[in-house]
Predict the structure of tRNA-dihydrouridine synthase.
Amino acid sequence: MWITQNKPIIALAPMADMTDSPFCRVCREVSGGDFVIFREMVSAEAIVRGNEKTLKMCGFDEIERPIVLQIFGGDPKIMREAAEIIVCANTPLCSPLRRGEILRPDGIDVNMGCPVPKIAGKSKAGAALMKDHERAVAIIKELKAANLGVPVSVKTRLGWSKDDEILEFAQKLEQAGADAITIHGRTKKQGYSGVANWDRIKEVKKLVSIPVIANGDIHSREDIARCLEITGADGVMIGRAALGNPWIFDMRNTKECEIAKIDVVKIVLRHAELHLEHYGEEFGLKTFRKHLLCYFRGFDGVKELRQRLVRVEKYEELGKELESL
Ligand SMILES: Cc1cc2nc3c(=O)[nH]c(=O)nc-3n(C[C@H](O)[C@H](O)[C@H](O)COP(=O)(O)O)c2cc1C
């Protein structure tokens, strides 16, 4: 059960194209087991269609547990079918996911906050659900009726255009049966601008009795403590601050984890190794470049190194470049 009562929940945020299996494995390997992983969103419709790439995105390594898979979509029946496939509730489509064993994530999360037009527009999914409470409620009710055996949570924002819309929406989600709710402290209209409004999350926490996880602008241990204190929330979720920084979840030391350059190099090489294993040599390290840029964003005097790193195609070349550090 990823929803814990005895201590604050610490979660890695779902981030499309970033929180894939290799990155999540690295987070777990370097930070230990005291946090829950939310994997990048996947399309419910693509799962139901049996799209191989999407089904592969749902796979995970046991080390990633506790792990929550996030789905997006606007059709309650399709959302239910997709969730059933993911938790392998006896459907023929399970087989591509199994790879010899039954995969059963520790939770299903519904994306009700994505602002991307492709998702929040025609698909009536993501952030659009904040404007269509009836549909949002129907999705949660369908998922709960499926008796998946794992919690069904929602990740949303403060509202579509106004930051108090969440007050009514959160209560409706709770009544529909949602087991937990993560709130990014911004509206859809804000996108990523401005500062996350943790005070509004505090108001939601007072209104509902399901666990509330606060999200937005948490960059450090101090921020975690401050956010928990301000919001009174049951947990926090960390997104961008975890990119290139997978050791942020390591709560084993009392001090902020100071990481030496030599360790960063080791972690980057391990991440690259897992990335190649997952995506295959054919793509090489092209799709790994975004992570490389994150790992070295704060380093002094590595401008040239970063320029060389983004041209690296092979694992061996990467090793050589990093030796110069
Ligand atoms: C590159 C990127 C991809 C994201 N993809 C998703 C996603 O798949 N599902 C989701 O619910 N939120 C997604 N988000 C939003 C984050 O989960 C999080 O709510 C947001 O970044 C605010 O938290 P932060 O300030 O800790 O980064 C994404 C954010 C970024 C930056």
Notes: Residues 261-323 form one domain. DSSP finds 14 helices and nine strands in the chain. The radius of gyration is 20 Å.
